[in-house]
């Protein structure tokens, strides 16, 4: 299951609408070893195509260096489909190179309503997964207990 904040969903959808009729693409980065998307990174579709996306190679190199420097990974790799449903094409499956990533597709074929779906793509096998959109990142219960246990009698816990 992909758990994702609403602001990140809104950013992906806005990017997809902005680049329409061409496909938009990008990454949501998160801490290495986690499955939490935290940072929106829109990329340039070097193909500038309504039916295909390709990360700009220089942007991709900069992104990988930045991820490494920040101890982050691409938790989500997203792109839009401008005239079809949000389901990976054969080309999407063939270029999927991050087995741990969630592949999110946003369909902008309807100008009023977007469709957003998430998949795992491993060794050419596509598996759809549920998406849970949350208003903010859930607080880890262990961290919340720590925060509550370290407050004084006049303190208000700073949980959210």
Automatic annotation (TrEMBL):
Keywords noted in UniProt: Hydrolase, Metal-binding, Metalloprotease, Protease, Zinc
Domain MPN, chain residue ranges per copy: 2-125
UniProt entry tagged with the keyword Zinc: yes
Gene3D superfamilies hit by this protein: Cytidine Deaminase, domain 2
InterPro entries: JAB_dom_prok (IPR028090), JAMM/MPN+_dom (IPR000555), MPN (IPR037518), VirAsm_ModProt (IPR051929)
Keyword Protease: yes
Name by which UniProt lists this protein: Mov34/MPN/PAD-1 family protein
UniProt organism field: Allokutzneria oryzae
Classification of source organism: Bacteria, Bacillati, Actinomycetota, Actinomycetes, Pseudonocardiales
């Amino acid at each position: 299951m992909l758990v994702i904040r609403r602001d990140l969903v809104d950013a992906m959808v806005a990017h997809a609408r902005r680049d329409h009729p061409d496909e938009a693409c990008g990454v949501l980065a998160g801490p290495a070893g986690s499955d939490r998307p935290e940072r929106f990174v829109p990329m340039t579709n070097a193909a500038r195509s309504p039916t295909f996306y390709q990360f700009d190679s220089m942007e991709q190199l900069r992104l990988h260096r930045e991820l490494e420097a920040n101890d982050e990974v691409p938790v989500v790799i997203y792109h839009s489909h401008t005239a079809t449903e949000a389901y990976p094409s054969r080309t999407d499956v063939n270029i999927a190179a991050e087995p741990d990533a969630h592949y999110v597709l946003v369909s902008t074929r309807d100008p009023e309503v977007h469709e957003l779906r998430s998949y795992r793509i491993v060794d050419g096998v596509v598996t759809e997964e549920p998406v849970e959109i949350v208003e903010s990142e859930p607080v880890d219960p262990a961290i919340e207990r720590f925060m509550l246990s370290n407050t004084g009698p006049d303190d208000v816990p700073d949980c959210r």
